[in-house]
Amino acid sequence: RCVLLQTLPATEFASINGDVRLLTPDVVEGWSDLVHCPSQRLLDRLVRRYAETKDSGSFLLRNLKDSERMQLLITLAFNPEPLVLQSFPSDEGWPFAKYLGACGRMVAVNYVGEELWSYFNAPWEKRVDLAWQLMEIAEQLTNNDFEFALYLLDVSFDNFAVGPRDGKVIIVDAENVLVADKRLIKQNKPENWDVWYESKFDDCDKEACLSFSKEILCARATVDHNYYAICQNLLSRHATWRGTSGGLLHDPPPEIAKDGRLEALLDECANPKKRYGRFQAAKELREYLAQLSNNVR
């Protein structure tokens, strides 16, 4: 039988004891997607906002009790989702489910609503609004005032939910989120840091495929990954899920289909033909969906 508390002293977690002042990048780098390439600024944010301690608000690791510190480290390594929800809370406008608390290794979050998949055959007006919200989420996670880029590495219809009252789209599975500190990238200037990175379209035979390099996501200041993930796996004709195809915006009204602009923007966003085409297509798609959404209301 494995007793966790008896086993931990023999692991690397035990080396981060009460004498350690700060949680530093060299210690936790690569433990999970959340800290694949952590900056000190990100780690201070994680510790300061860690909710399962009476001393919440301090970024000093040594202010945590031994049990609190160990729980934080284990969560960071094996199930970082609660830390994403705490560090980028819905109360501050981030598109994640609200973290309510924990009891042992059980975590409670608020019920958002039915998963996005249940809206696959909703009326066109509803699907347009949901698609616009998804593109807005992609933009917010990519470009924000905090200069943290939150890249979604697992994007499917089951990872989003829709509020039954306000119709708001929320990310309900945040386990596979990579956070890159764009402020640090601009400061350290790794090779090609300022060259815009275009994600490669993945025409695989499985559902919800994504092609990405974590190392590149961590080293470029301008990346189109979130636009690519949303367009390819949710919105465009390339999206497949549970035996369906066509994406959330399948079967548009005749006048929209005849115009051809929506299909062209979705195709360029998912599988661009022009250099840096996805960046421009994503911008125009957000604007076009906003226009359509206003028109149908």
UniProtKB/TrEMBL annotation:
Per the record, the GO terms for biological process are:
cardiac muscle cell proliferation; negative regulation of smooth muscle cell apoptotic process; regulation of phosphatidylinositol 3-kinase/protein kinase B signal transduction
Q: Please tell me where this protein is predominantly located.
A: secreted
The residues forming the signal peptide are none
What keywords tag this UniProt record?
Answer: Secreted, Signal
Please name one Pfam family that this protein belongs to: PIP49_C
Domain FAM69 protein-kinase positions: 74-272
Signal is among the record's keywords: yes
| GO CC, one annotated term | extracellular space
- Residue stretches in coiled coil: none
Q: What InterPro entries does the annotation carry?
A: DIPK2A/B, FAM69_kinase_dom
Q: Does the keyword Transport apply?
A: no
Where does this one sit in the cell? Secreted
What family is reported? Belongs to the DIPK family.
Q: What is this protein called?
A: Divergent protein kinase domain 2A
Q: Which organism is it from?
A: Pelodiscus sinensis (Chinese softshell turtle)
The gene that this protein is the product of is DIPK2A
